[in-house]
Specification:
The chain contains four helices and seven strands; from the N terminus they run αββααββαβββ. With about 140 residues, it is of the alpha+beta class. It has two domains: about 25-100, Defensin A-like, CATH 3.30.30.170; about 105-138, no CATH class. The strands form two sheets. A four-stranded antiparallel beta sheet has the order 1-2-4-3, covered by helices on one side. A three-stranded antiparallel beta sheet has the order 5-6-7, with no helix packed on it. The two termini are about 30 Å apart. The chain binds zinc ion. Zinc ion binds near residues 104, 107, 109, 125 and 127.
Length: about 140
């Protein structure tokens, strides 16, 4: 690899950073509340977080389970993971969910909705009107 390519790569990495930082300052991603009980982790405000994002709780739940690679149960008033999971790891995944499925990549606002068209899933921003396909990369 030449040094030029390496610099280009670094520049690319720097370009991406400010966007995510901007998004975080404009809208605070809620943090999970919960506790560890024996070998399980109980999260009590999962539904509220999904509500804040205006997303179906099952959708966020499936994403988090897959990301954490941990078994879990969706209950009426929370979720139970079948393992000890630090809150920081769950918060990280919720932020990832928010960036992928909630925040508009154009204006950074969380007022988006998901639209399914055939096998494609789009994230449409209600604030600026941008529509992005979000399942092509998965
Ligand atoms: Zn937007």
């Amino acid at each position: 690899m030449s040094s030029n390519n390496y610099e280009d790569m670094l520049e690319g990495a720097y370009k991406k950073l400010p966007e995510i930082r901007d998004i975080k300052t404009r809208f605070e991603v809620p943090k999970v509340r919960g506790h560890i009980q024996g070998n399980t982790t109980i999260i009590s405000n999962f539904h509220q977080i999904a509500q804040t994002f205006n997303r179906p709780v099952e959708h966020m739940f499936k994403f988090i389970l897959k990301e954490l690679a941990t078994p879990g149960d969706l209950k009426k008033n929370g979720i139970i993971f079948g393992a000890k999971v630090p809150a920081s790891r769950i918060n990280e995944k919720i932020e990832k969910y928010a960036v992928e499925y909630v925040f508009c990549e154009e204006c950074g606002k969380p007022e988006t909705k998901l639209i399914r068209e055939g096998t494609y899933l789009f994230k449409k921003c209600l604030a600026c009107g941008v529509k992005l396909c979000i399942n092509a990369k998965r």
